[in-house]
Amino acid sequence: MSSSINSSSSSRSSCGLCPFAVQVIKGRWFTVFASFLIMAGAGATYLFGVYSKDIKSTLGYDQTTLNLLGFFKDLGANVGVLSGLIGEVTPAWFVLLVGSAMNFAGYFMIWLSVIEKIAKPKVWQMCLYICLGANSQNFANTGALVTCVKNFPESRGVMLGLLKGFTGLSGAIFTQLYLAIYPNDSKSLILLIGWLPVALSVVFVYTIRPMKAVKQQNELRVFYHFLYISVSLALFILAMSLIQKQVAFSQAAYAGTSAVVCLFLFLPLAIAIREELVLWNLKKIPVDPPTEVSIEKPQEIQEIKDDSDLQVQNTKSTTCFGDICNKPERGEDYTILQALLNMDMMILFIATFCGLGSSLTAVDNLGQIGESLGYPTKTISTFVSLVSIWNYFGRVFSGFVSETLMVKWNVPRTLMMTFMLVLSSLAYLSIAFPFPGSVYVASVIIGVSFGAQLTLLFTIISELFGLKYYATLFNCGQLASPLGSYILNVKVTGMLYDREALKQLAEKGLTRSSVKELTCLGGQCYRLSFSILAAVTFFGALVSLILVMRTRKFYKGDIYKKYREAA
Q1: Transmembrane segments in this chain: where (predicted)?
Q2: Are the beta carbons of 130 and 74 closer than 8 angstroms?
Q3: What is the CATH superfamily name and number for domain 328-559?
Q4: Does the pLDDT at position 266 exceed 90?
């Protein structure tokens, strides 16, 4: 008798758990958790400085050719218009699956080339492979990031900061995992980059979808809890990165470190379950029916009907490319062409060309900068980890800090972008004129400013031009960065580096054909090029000040009012 009672009670509890589990998986907070994991696997492009040395030595490239590869990586990573347009007409799961296929195809071919399992590819083929693999991160952005911003429109600055923060941490996370799975084999890091993001997207692909935006009273508090977890993860990885350079870790120690990293990555799931449990319990509270029913006057009903008819007419008449001449107010939903031809977008384009173009150049050359200044290989990998971790802090805190400044004191978010551009120009000068420890300082500043610029750019575009075509517009907004990377990285930094390296060869009585790898040593290798980067970035800061002046009035208003009314 007692056993039957126990079995019936357990069956009731299991039946109660099943609907709750379904609610958790279908809920907005689980979408956020899944998006964190997908975005944590979408920042492999920042590891180029780790494995670029393998590509350069195995395939016998000079610095100009390597920087050309870096440009195509940046081109793929930042030209996301295709993913944006696909995202306008297809569900998020399709976008994520297309990106997964591109990621695996691109990086798997690079890995086969580096381990020499296939014939040495031509330069254009390597450019195609790395462009294809890097472009996959735009599909992750469009599928996961855009969906979350639309699900939490009033917390978009915070949400963008967290999501892009996990992308910024991606390089450091991959480093810890590859040290545990493929110890001291940077070539196998390319293979890890090829399969791990694919696995994450495939597992969580059907949980990423747009939902009706419903404002919760404790929403910001929940995001702060996510922030505490991600900051703890970043500090842990930072500590491990520094300790691993001083102490020889065993394979078991690396495995333990990776296990802790994975634990931090899955902690947001507990918060998602907690919030869904709150909503689950609220559903059980009986709601009294309203005692009074307000009846609208016939005239008011007619006015409401007329207004709704007008809105339907406006919606039908405006396509994503049409109605160019009727420019909406800032903050309303722009069409794609209205936004692209707007002066605010053009100013953002110039600032992005200068700021992100210079940042991408610095990140791509970080390995060679450390080598030219005589740092050992382990220290160079520390620079890359520092950029990745501080890139995270820049992304996250620029979202939280700019949101706080804007809501409490009406400080334009565009002003923070200006500040970050000025800060990064100082970092480039510390590389151009190095002093003891200058590369450590520069790695931190470049990471912070680079991450902050990305979060601020995406948030500003969503605020100025609306969310209706955000999937395409935010991808269009970063088009300037690969153009800046090509000019500043390939045509300026790479050529000036090779010129200095050839000078050093000539002093030794050697020619280019007598060496396989063209290497420059000394502070003069990057002096002129990074002085140019500093000047270009400072010019971008001056241009962004124009946008600060243009948007001052807009940011003094309540830019989230319409989203609160809709919720």
Answers
A1: 29-52, 64-86, 92-112, 160-182, 188-208, 220-240, 252-273, 345-363, 375-393, 414-433, 439-462, 469-488, 528-548
A2: no
A3: MFS general substrate transporter like domains (1.20.1250.20)
A4: yes
